[in-house]
Amino acid sequence: MSKLSKRSSCTCSKEQDISPFIHDNTLAVYVKPNSPRSGVVGWNAPKKELIVEIKAPPEGGKANVMLVKLLSRLTKKRLFFLKARPQSISF
């Protein structure tokens, strides 16, 4: 996949390449919990953040865990949270 647009509609697949959006081993992420499915849905260029829908609810860290698993699978790297707000994940 080349670049994601703000309105692009794509589901999570192992072929998605999100590496162009990672800068200094950090990825800014806008998360939409309680979504119908989990996956990367677009890129917000003005805010420079990846838009990700997560099926899990935002309770007890369930959405955070699912987000880390999703991005770990896409990047094939071990991830951890850098900040809680805005959601940044370090690689």
Task: Describe the protein.
It is a single chain. This protein has a domain at 24-85: Conserved Hypothetical Protein Mth637, Chain: A, CATH 3.30.1200.10. The chain is globular. It contains one helix and five strands. It has one helix spanning 62-75; strands spanning 26-32, 39-44, 49-53, 80-83, 88-90. It is α+β, with helices and mostly antiparallel strands and 91 residues long. Strand 2 and strand 3 form a beta hairpin. It has a five-stranded mixed β-sheet with strand order 2-3-1-5-4.
> Order of strands in the sheet with the most strands?
2-3-1-5-4
Mean pLDDT equals: 77
Poorly predicted ranges: 1-14
Q: Would you list the SSEs in sequence order as H and E?
A: EEEHEE
Which fold name corresponds to the CATH topology of the domain at 24-85? Conserved Hypothetical Protein Mth637, Chain: A
In CATH, what is the homologous superfamily of the domain at 24-85? Answer: YggU-like
How far apart are the termini? 20 Å
Instruction: Tell me the Rg in angstroms.
Output: 12 Å
Helix content: 10-25%
What coarse outline follows from CA principal-axis ratios? Answer: globular
β-strand percent reads 25-35%
Structural class: alpha+beta
Q: What would CATH call the class of the domain at 24-85? A: Alpha Beta
**What is the number of strand segments?**
5
Largest sheet: 5 strands, mixed
Architecture (CATH level 2) name of the domain at 24-85: 2-Layer Sandwich
